[in-house]
Every structure is written in structure tokens, then in C-alpha cells.
Amino acid sequence: DVVMTQSPLSLPVTLGQPASISCRSSQSLVHSDGNTKLSWFQQRPGQSPRRLIYRVSNRASGVPDRFSGSGSGTDFTLKISRVEAEDVGVYYCMQGTHWPPTFGGGTKVEIK
Amino acid sequence: QVQLQQSGPGLVKPSETLSLTCAISGDSVSTDSAAWNWIRQSPSRGLEWLGRTYYRSRWNNEYAGSVRSRITINPDTSRNQFSLQLNSVTPDDTAVYYCVRGWIGDGWDVWGQGTTVTVSS
Predict the structure, then answer these.
(1) Is B64 on the interface with A (CB under 8 A)?
(2) Shortest alpha-carbon distance between residue B107 and chain A (Å)
(3) How far apart are the C-alpha atoms of B78 and A68, rounded to whole Å?
(4) Helix (H, G, I), strand (E, B), or coil: what is residue A14?
(5) 3-class DSSP state for residue A29?
(6) What confidence tens digit (pLDDT) does each residue in B32-67 have?
């Protein structure tokens, strides 16, 4: 299975400041159809995960534009341009290129 | 707005069968534009995709290798819902179970509320 490695494990951030989360895959995530099937999810405390980004950089419906995704091949990044209090939670990357789909271990974002 | 409502017992005995149901509103289990998945989350395993069912001229089921010998996901078109059965459970199957709509390649866009299932005698 493809291993997804996230860093850092924990990310203390000051309100209004940017945040960046890294996700690396053990294999290239470029699918044979040309798409790169890398998604990001947010899980707020006590809630179900919520899709933020799909196919590397496409924001899901209703996701604020302060969230952005980038990357290619095996290296990907989720950025929050200005962290707000509601952004506290755990963020997961997930690959859907190789079978079976696999998740990263998560990055916990907290307010300093 | 699509919503998924989960139901099922929160406690299952070792060696017995875990059964959960996911009722769909705002969409159809028979749609050819979505798949219906089960995902679980535990401290030891993290987030783990278990399997899916979807309709493309016929019903298709696909399962993760880690549970393939023990899992069944079935659609119920009369009730517009789908179910998860996991046989011969052990304490390692203790987790929060989510039903989820969507395609793997695009992430999953609608999640149920989650059901905490504990395997214990």
C-alpha cells in the first residue's frame, strides 16, 4: 500500500498567521488517466471529516479561499493563508491513485 | 442537500457480526454518479477505507484487502440505504465507523455522523 507521511504532527499557529502542512507519498500519485488523486480533509473536534481539497488543488464546495492545495508527484502541501479559530482540528491527506486508498496520519492544528 | 444517517449497535461481542446501516436523503443509492463507502477511524489504524458499493449497469462491490474475507456492503434500493456487515470481529475492529458518499479519486464529499463501535465481551 502507498504510505502517506504528513509533517508536522502538530502545528501551533497564531490567529491571522499562515500555516502549511506537508504530505509525501511513497509512490508518485500521477494516475494513468493523467490526474493526480490527492485530497485533503479537515476534522474538527468531535466532528466527521470534511473534504477540503480534491485532485491536489480543487477547493470543495463551501471551503473558504484561505485554503489552498499544491504539489505534484510525491510532494504536496496544504496552506491556510490566515488561520482562524474555526480552523482548529486535524488535517489529513489521502491518495486515491493507487489501490487501496490510503490516508496520512494527520496534522493537528492548534492556536498558540 | 445530501445527508447520511447512520444506525446500529455501539457494542458487539468478539467473534460476532458488526452491522451498521446508512440511510440516504437527497440522493439515491442507485445513482450512477456516486459510490457509497464505509470508512473507519481508530487510534491504532487511523483512517481506513473499508469498501464501497455502486451501480454501473449492475451493482459493484469492492473491498479493502485487510477485511475482504469478513466484509459485506449491500445496497437496499427499497429503503434507499446501504449497510455494512463485518464478521468475526475482534477488539482490533473497535473504531468509529463512517458511511460516506463519493469517488475515491475526488475524495468523499458527504460523511455520516459516525458510529462508535466497541468490540468487547
Answers:
(1) yes
(2) 6
(3) 41
(4) coil
(5) coil
(6) 999 999 999 999 999 999 999 999 999 999 999 999
